[in-house]
Design brief:
Blueprint: E1 4-8, H1 13-25, E2 30-35, H2 42-48, E3 51-55, E4 72-75, H3 83-91, E5 94-97, H4 105-114, E6 120-123, H5 131-139, E7 143-155, H6 163-166, H7 168-174, E8 176-180, E9 183-187, E10 194-196, E11 204-208, H8 213-221, E12 225-232, H9 236-239, E13 246-256, E14 261-270, H10 274-290, E15 301-303, H11 305-308, H12 311-320, E16 324-327
Parallel strand pairs: 1-2, 1-4, 2-3, 4-5, 5-6, 6-15, 7-12
Antiparallel strand pairs: 7-13, 8-9, 10-11, 11-12, 13-14, 14-16
Length: about 325
């Protein structure tokens, strides 16, 4: 029987991109675009085919009561009370959430420990819904020891974003998580800026964030120094005379597998912008959760992109959708 996916916020910029990506890889999945103004999703539902709209309010006692059976809840909107997570735990529905920051994890973890998930609950509050972490995980395989990882995500004001993303920047940097010398600290982002040299640019100011990439990459690599910064400037697309792209750099320093000290930079660039790239992070998680990749569906439990998605398969999928990933040659630090 075809899977049924509820995309909360499904007619927004990111939600709509997620829906289109899912339809690209599967013509059978039923997609339900949900929100407080479902009429706004009517045209997209008709475009997708095999899709519909429904009213959804995360502030009511039983937000899913009228919607019927669902295999996966994809939350592309803020859910401050974790109402959709609790509904997923109660009804054994898989859940992917892209707005969870590092400081939001504890309530979800405690709920999952109290009621172990029968289906996957995926924390995807990472840069571009896990894309940067997945690529960094692969890049780190070239090192026998990782000492530091610095990720910088560039925002180009010419790249259209939804109102949720537009209002997110200040909250992400006002309380940032850093790992320095093996110790964790919460800091004020603007007071802990660093100069960032994106590809072909002069130094820009990078402000650290509270995105989940920081604890994820520390856990994956054991690096004593990890940070992820937001940077504003002209993207590779804009500088090339095209539409604004979504760009990120990943700088890893440590001991290479050859035994020599080294530093490598990996550049990610999506010529179709941030919403498109974020939706790809959700797509590879969705494929794995539901088994749309041809493998058995993922087991229940609390998941992160690095515990859920095989990086080689994910990177191949990103490339199919036009994302460019380039790693520069190793150099001595």
């Amino acid at each position: 029987m075809p899977s049924r996916i509820l995309i909360a916020g499904g007619y927004g910029l990111v939600g709509g991109a997620i829906a289109r990506h899912i339809r690209t890889i599967s013509k059978d999945v039923e997609i339900v675009l949900a929100g407080r103004n479902p009429e706004k999703g009517a045209a997209l539902a008709q475009e997708l085919g095999g899709a519909g709209t429904t009213y959804l309010d995360v502030d009511v006692a039983d937000p899913l009561g009228h919607i019927g059976p669902v295999d996966l809840i994809m939350a592309a909107l803020y859910d401050p009370a974790n109402a959709l997570v609790h509904a997923a735990l109660t009804h054994s529905i898989a859940h992917i959430g892209i707005t969870t920051k590092a400081e939001d994890v504890a309530p979800i973890a405690f709920a999952a420990l109290r009621s172990p998930p029968m289906r996957p609950i995926v924390l995807l509050g990472h840069c571009a819904a896990g894309v940067a972490t997945i690529v960094a995980q692969k890049a780190a395989e070239g090192f026998s020891r990782v000492d530091s990882i610095e990720v910088a995500a560039l925002y180009d004001v010419r790249d259209p974003v939804g109102p949720m993303t537009a209002g997110d920047a200040e909250s992400l940097t006002s309380r940032a998580l850093l790992r320095v010398g093996g110790k964790w600290s919460w800091v004020d982002g603007p007071q802990n800026a660093r100069p960032v040299h994106m590809s072909g640019t002069q130094a820009l100011q990078g402000y650290p964030t509270g995105l989940l990439d920081v604890p994820s990459l520390a856990a994956i690599t054991g690096a004593a120094n990890v940070r992820l910064d937001m940077v504003q400037g002209d993207s590779l697309g804009t500088r090339g005379g095209n539409r604004a792209s979504s760009d990120a750099t990943i700088d890893i320093e440590g001991i290479l597998v050859s035994g020599a000290p080294g530093r490598r930079r990996t550049v990610i660039s999506d010529p179709n912008g941030l919403a498109h790239l974020t939706a790809l992070g959700v797509l590879v998680a969705t494929e794995r959760v539901l088994g749309l990749d041809g493998q058995p569906p993922a087991a229940g439990g609390l998941h992160l992109p690095e515990t859920l998605v095989p990086p080689d398969a994910a990177i191949a999928r990103f490339a199919q959708f036009g994302v460019r990933i380039v790693t520069e040659e190793a150099q001595a630090p």
